[in-house]
Specification:
Layout lengths: L12 E6 L3 H9 L5 E7 L3 E3 L4 H5 L9 E3 H4 L6 E5 L2 E5 L4 E4 L2 E4 L2 E4 L3 E3 L5 H6 L1 E2 L3 H18 L5 H8 L1 E4 L3 H21 L10 E4 L11 H14 L2 E3 L4 E4 L3 E4 L4 E3 L3 E3 L3 E3 H35 L7 H25 L8
Parallel strand pairs: 1-2, 1-9, 2-5, 11-18, 12-13, 12-18, 13-14
Antiparallel strand pairs: 3-4, 6-7, 7-8, 10-19, 15-16, 16-17
Bound molecules: flavin-adenine dinucleotide.
């Protein structure tokens, strides 16, 4: 791979920052007057203010209002070089990164690439649900909602119209709560004016939360206020409710209840790259060795059963084999359930 072009060999040590979100940008700002060559690489040339994405999704703000050009932010940073590129690989031994625009050596490397939406390995949901992590996600949500309203006008059956109008949000954290509130206000004040032919009493806004409270990281008082506020706005908040499947039309809940909607926003938790690594590390370091131990232990069990009375000293091995075998099954079971998303709130 070629070197990234036009990055001079610096007199000062080189700090490479990957990602210019809140973390990367703040660090780059702090290093403005330090004696480093700072190289910032991001796959986008703008910083996005994620807390207001819900406003873009509900047409309250344009994407440009929450996106700030990085070159403008960094224009007075004489020690800073910015490039658009995507980090692909790091060689920590050689202190080199490999990106879509070439390779580069570093003295210090900061990876601040943020997080991604966590679908908890639920394939159907990943395929059909709408995440809200970037301006393009927000615009997609906005377009899907508006296209569904346009489509609702072409139908006569109440069930069918409701499926186009209904919106389900999964995750009662700040994103889900803010989005539900904004949609409920849209339903009340804006949509009836824009779509006078649609009866918006047929539109339901659901907020499904697997925990026992909304915005549970905040105080119980705030949590209750958020609940009451949404309730008053007509949002159907369902606590202690898991969404187990969604095929693009029917949301299946852990309670056995089903609801029809063509719009399901997935605003649950996030998944950092490190989490992904730690799960594969878990598999490599615990599950696979445990599986091997289990197989060996199983062999001991069989041997112990066959030789049982004749070789009494193998009995203790059988007992241990059974315990280990059980442990292995438990771990495998846990892993399978996790893959299916059953432990979505744990992992
Ligand atoms: C809808 C929403 C609402 C939120 N509301 C709030 C709130 O009200 N209050 C609050 O405190 N927090 C809120 N947050 C969380 C907050 O936005 C994040 O905690 C914060 O953005 C994390 O900053 P970061 O720098 O780690 O990552 P990010 O801001 O996500 O930045 C990561 C950067 O890395 C870049 N990148 C990613 N991968 C690569 C790669 N391979 N190569 C190069 N570049 C890459 C991306 O382009 C991006 O610019 C909200 C988040 C969302 C999604």
């Amino acid at each position: 791979m070629k070197q990234i072009a036009n990055i001079p060999n610096a007199e000062n040590k080189r700090v490479v920052i990957i990602g210019s979100g809140f973390a990367g940008m703040k660090l780059a700002m702090e290093l403005k007057k330090e004696k480093f060559q700072v190289v910032v690489i991001d796959k986008r040339n703008y910083h996005q203010f994620q807390p207001l994405l819900y406003q873009v999704a509900t047409a309250g703000l344009e994407p440009t209002a929450i996106s700030f050009p990085l070159r403008k932010l960094f224009q007075y940073h004489k020690n800073l070089i910015f490039r658009i590129g995507t980090l692909m690989e790091v060689d920590p031994d050689k202190k080199q990164i490999f990106t879509s625009i070439g390779k580069l050596s570093y003295d210090y490397l900061v990876i601040a690439t943020g997080a991604r939406t966590n679908f908890f390995n639920m394939g159907n949901i990943k395929k059909h649900a709408l995440p809200l992590k970037s301006p393009s996600d927000a615009i997609l949500i906005r377009n899907v909602i508006l296209e569904n309203y346009e489509e609702a006008l072409n139908h006569t059956s109440d069930n069918c119209i409701s499926a186009y109008l209904n919106i389900a949000i999964v995750g009662g954290g700040p994103t889900g709560v803010e989005l539900a509130g904004a949609l409920a206000e849209m339903k009340k004040f804006i949509l009836p004016k824009d779509y006078p032919d649609i009866d918006f009493t047929k539109m339901r806004i659901f907020l499904f939360e697997s925990g026992s409270a909304l915005i549970k990281n905040m105080s119980p008082k705030s949590s209750k206020q958020a609940f009451d506020y949404l309730d008053k706005l007509g949002v159907e908040v369902r606590l202690n409710t898991f969404v187990s499947d969604y095929d693009g039309k029917i949301v299946k809940l852990s309670s056995g209840e089903n609801h029809m909607t063509y719009t399901l926003v997935w605003a649950t938790s996030i998944d950092a790259l490190a989490v992904g690594l730690s799960m594969s590390m878990l598999q490599v370091s615990i599950i696979y060795p445990a599986l091997i131990i289990g197989i060996v232990a199983g062999l001991f069990t069989i041997t112990g059963l066959h030789l049982g009375k004749r070789v009494a000293r193998l009995t203790w091995l059988s007992t241990w084999a059974e315990i280990l075998g059980g442990l292995v099954l438990w771990i495998i079971g846990l892993n399978i359930l996790r893959e299916k998303g059953v432990f979505s709130t744990i992992f």
